[in-house]
Amino acid sequence: MLVCDMGSGTGYNLTVVITRYQTTVTSTVSYVAPVLSQILPPSPIISDTTGGVPLTIIGSDFGPSVDHVTVYIGDEVCPRDALTMLEAHQKIVVIIPPGTGASRNLRVEVGGQVGTQQSA
User: Fold this and answer.
1) What tens digit of pLDDT does each residue of 38-67 get?
2) Residue 68 carries which DSSP code?
3) For site-directed labelling of 84, which of 18, 52, 57, 101 has its Cα 20 to 30 A away?
4) Among residues 39, 102, 23, 34, which one has the least CA distance to residue 63?
5) Residue 119 pLDDT more than 70?
6) What is the rounded distance in angstroms from the CA atom of residue 70 to the CA atom of residue 83?
7) pLDDT digit string (tens) for 8-36?
8) Residue 3 contacts by C-beta under 8 Å, 6 or more apart in sequence?
């Protein structure tokens, strides 16, 4: 039996290849998808069209850094430089980019997996 300790990371269906002598075994492994438990300040969030309002997203399984995190407000992707990982795996701050519209949903993807909103 071979035991491999996976470090922290993000993604799903990642390929694992183990070769010993002339035998190769291939499998896949996935990290847990992110969960959003709280957004601060609470809704409704008011911002003028210039943006600039910071939102804190609290949850789990966001990964060790923002390298594989994408935040959407409505259908718009927030620029990567607008994201800051305050606490690895658990807390992200995003600065709302300029835009227009009302009642836009917030979505977080980590390593290609969409975050789910945890019920209160």
Assistant:
1) 999 877 777 778 888 899 999 999 999 999
2) G
3) 101
4) 34
5) no
6) 9
7) 888 888 898 989 899 999 989 888 899 99
8) none
Are 62 and 34 spatial neighbours (Cβ–Cβ below 8 Å)? yes
Confidence of residue 118 (pLDDT cuts 50, 70, 90): low
Q: Which helix (H) or strand (E) holds 35?
A: strand 35-40
How far is Cα 92 from Cα 84, in angstroms, rounded to an integer?
6
Residue whose pair of structure tokens reads 């227009």 in the numeric block: 100
CB neighbours of 102 closer than 8 A, spacing ≥ 6? Answer: none
Structure tokens at 16: 């694992």
pTM of whole model > 0.90? no
Which residues, including other chains, have CB under 8 Å from residue 41's CB and lie 6 or more apart?
55
Cα separations in angstroms, 64 against 53, 70, 94: 24, 14, 16
